What does this fold into?
Amino acid sequence: MARRHKIALIGAGNIGGELAAMAARHELGDVVLFDIPEKESLAKGKALDLEQMGSVLPYDAHITGTANWDDCAGADVVIVTAGVPRKPGMSRDDLLGINLKIIRNVADQVRSKCPNAFVIVISNPLDAMVYEMKKVTQFPRERVVGMAGVLDAARFQLFLARELGASVKDVRAMVLGGHGDTMVPVTSYCTCNGIPVRQLIAADKLNAIVERTRQGGGEIVKLMGTSAYYAPAAAAITMAEAYLHDDKRLLPAAAYLDGEYGFSDLYMGVPVIIGGKGVERIVTIELSAEERANLEKSAAAVKELLDASKKL
Ligand SMILES: NC(=O)c1ccc[n+]([C@@H]2O[C@H](COP(=O)([O-])OP(=O)(O)OC[C@H]3O[C@@H](n4cnc5c(N)ncnc54)[C@H](O)[C@@H]3O)[C@@H](O)[C@H]2O)c1
It folds into this structure.
């Protein structure tokens, strides 16, 4: 018998609320918005508000706000935003100590309550958090993935589209590597409806766009005093949808590498296919010498972060 899917959102803050709204509007299934006991009424309030929105738009989703892990039991998809976001002047890595403790606790619960879930981690520093999630849950790598590349690529695509005076719908781009200042916007694969953007944008302008993309999260933190949440939520929902609908989308995402691109035992942004089996394939692409060198630098930064988290 067919049944409704269940999407558990761990963290009912800014991104959690947007995730719930999008999951409901896309009718992905029923939604559980989980937070710590001190934030339970906020989670319940957001859930009720969103259920009421459903009767206006309309959509039909049961949305539950809770601080009880039992309500998350048996979820098909778990999306984790639990933790603290950046404040102006902070790097993502500055969040390591505090968010690592949170992710360990969350992962423990996910392992016992949602043993078959596809898990998408958003909390920062992303590459260390998603690594820890896999380590604690011991889920196969197909079922634990980090969201960063879709968001970073979205920022890259927007800046390119604005420079081109073209629709953002026609610009496709990849951002690989760690989700930090060393991320690698891959200019050799950026196209505007199939036309390489390198033919359309001068090198100095392209370099400035690459730099703005690398600082894209910080730019928003400076403006708002906290991290972005609309685009991050949309990015994670795209990944969840690809899994639930077996869409087989080719997306950049933080995947566990076991020899691919010459790296092992770390999570980093690479192109993957997401479908009904989760991360069904890691796609290996050729990179220019410069892009390859940048990817190595990014992997070294991720390794450093992992070494630091292993000591905590
Ligand atoms: N991967 C990305 O591309 C990306 C993009 C933007 C933000 N982020 C990160 O996402 C995270 C969430 O951002 P936000 O803006 O939603 O923050 P937020 O502060 O609005 O929400 C985080 C929520 O997590 C909750 N929380 C804390 N400990 C918890 C626990 N043990 N169990 C359940 N919930 C818990 C908090 O109470 C809070 O409500 C941050 O770490 C931020 O840096 C990642």
Q: What stands out?
A: The first strand starts at residue 6 and ends at 10.
